[in-house]
Amino acid sequence: MDKREFLKKLEKALKRLQPEERARYISYYDEIIMDLVDGGMSEKDAVIKQGSMNDIVADIMSQVEPDKVVKKNIFEIILFIVACLAAIICTIVLIALPDVVTFAMMDMDGPTSIFLAGKVIEPVWLYILTAIVLVVSIVLFAVRKKDKCVIALSVALLICAVTFVIVRIDDNKKYDYESTSEVADVYASPEIEKRTVEVIELVSNNDYQKLSDEYAVEEMKEFLNDEYMLEAKKMISDDWGELQNIGTMYSVEVTQNNVNYTVVQVNATYEKLSIAYTITYDEELKLVGIYFR
Fold first, then answer.
1. Are residues 288 and 111 in contact, defined by beta-carbon separation less than 8 angstroms?
2. Helix/strand/coil (H, E, C) string of the chain?
3. How many angstroms separate the CA atoms of 70 and 61, rounded?
């Protein structure tokens, strides 16, 4: 290797030293090699004459005073570990949440979703905490490195972290039909009322095959089966009893991504409890979302 490569590797190998002390040894070996080159030796031979890098580093570290060695920053190490753990937990939650908290399927092209036995509440606080830890870690790293590329990368990661949190919060709001104040403003039309009665009766009779085949959009079909629906109903109660009455229906038209949907709210009374339904249809009155509690 030539002198430049040698000094670069030496600098990397001495990263545990204080910057001033590291620079002193780099300058020392730079001068030794230059002296040998001035004496007629080739740069490559001059580098070889210095011996192996491991021996050089071991010799230097044996001579360095303890206060010249950079101490490991425990706080930064802990912060890094916390950031990694938080990121891993967020990833697991994002992957497992639909099957663990409740059953849910989201289609970003519209509100195609299924909410069974409770609204999916994503741990936004976890996203925010993770973003904060990542931001602090990135800033500390950038300040220590004092490198333009590192700072630029840190700013990019910071923007990504903030954007991620904003998007997740926005997604939660986007699909929160229960909190839509407009839902209770308009009586449902006879056509929508008839379709909603049919849907509720099929759910009540556990006839999910017909509900899937004749009433739902394609994305909903895999969730409208005994495995998902019966488990979801049990999360409310093991025994609902027979359907007794379906109350007054209210609906509202919503638009997402230039697609129109109808959201219906209605209470259904069973022998042993009352269920509040929020059901969403597309323009063809196909079921794209169902939520009950």
1. yes
2. CCHHHHHHHHHHHCCCECHHHHHHHHHHHHHHHHHHHHCCCCHHHHHHHCCCHHHHHHHHHHHCCHHHECCCCHHHHHHHHHHHHHHHHHHHHHHHHHHHCCCCCCECCECCEEECCCCCCCCHHHHHHHHHHHHHHHHHHHHHHCCHHHHHHHHHHHHHHHHHHHHHHHHHHHCCHHHCHHHHHEECCHHHHHHHHHHHHHHHCCCHHHHHHHHECHHHHCCCCHHHHHHHHHHHCCCCCCEEEECCCEEEEEEECCEEEEEEEEEEEECCCEEEEEEEECCCCCEEEEEEC
3. 12
CA distance 158 to 22: 31
Give the number of other CB atoms < 10 A from CB of residue 62.
Answer: 7
Tokens of 116: 């069974």
pLDDT, tens digit (0-9, with 9 covering 90-100), for 18-70 = 888 888 888 988 898 898 888 888 888 888 888 888 888 888 888 887 777 76
Q: How far apart are CA 250 and CA 264, in angstroms?
A: 6
pTM reported for the whole predicted model: 0.43
Take residue 5 and report the two structure tokens written for it: 């490569």
**153-174 residue pLDDT tens:** 666 666 666 666 666 555 555 4
Closest of 240, 235, 111, 244 to residue 183, by C-alpha: 111
